[in-house]
């Protein structure tokens, strides 16, 4: 089974198009306003209109209120929602879209219990623990702390890049990998050579 790939923090149409041409499964857009990778819903709508079929579009939120999510969905055609804050399960499932929950791999976090709490999620995105940050840090998650028996698909994030993604896949055997800063030239701008190298690293680990 090939490892699925998501490129997150997309802000430009040319980067989304390159991801699609390379066969990426999903592209992610950040709707947290204080993020350097924030992109307005109107811009996302324009980017998504240019994407071919079968590329999943994902919206990333951090502790939004309901009105904020609904406002984005009124403008940007998103296939999947990704919640990176302390959103309870009932909130995550309120919007008529499939969703995934991001969790930090941190000391004291019971990932098995979290998986049970968020049983309605289509997957758990496991990221590095960085106090006050919600992804895109370039810090590697503690792969050894991830249980092999999680009942939900694992989407591995946190400090992945072309040099280490193969090692990460062999260590964790996730359903998917999610990268943002690891394939950037600068924040919010992807490096297309790094994108190619990252995908090559994934496919080499799948063989």
Q: What are the main properties of this structure?
A:
10 strands, 207 residues, globular, two-stranded antiparallel ribbon, TIM Barrel, 7 helices, alpha/beta
Shape: globular
Query: What's the CATH superfamily, by name?
Result: Aldolase class I
> In the residues, how many domains can be counted?
1
How many strand units?
Answer: 10
The fraction of residues in strands falls at 15-25%
Structural class: alpha/beta
User: What is the arithmetic mean of pLDDT?
Assistant: 93
Instruction: Provide the CATH topology.
Output: TIM Barrel
Low-confidence stretches: none
Radius of gyration: 16 Å
Give the SSE string: EHEHEHEHEHEEHEEEH
Second-tier CATH architecture: Alpha-Beta Barrel
Main sheet summary = 8 strands, parallel, barrel
CATH class: Alpha Beta
End-to-end separation? 10 Å
The strand line-up of the biggest sheet is 1-2-3-4-5-6-7-8
| Helical amount | 25-40%
Please report the number of helical segments. Answer: 7
Question: Would you mind describing this structure in some detail?
Answer:
The structure is a single chain. This protein is α/β, with parallel strands linked by helices and 207 residues long. It has a single domain, classed as Alpha-Beta Barrel (TIM Barrel), CATH 3.20.20. It is built from 7 helices and 10 strands. Strands 1-2-3-4-5-6-7-8 form an 8-stranded parallel beta barrel. Helix 6 packs parallel to helix 7. It is globular, with a radius of gyration of 16 Å.
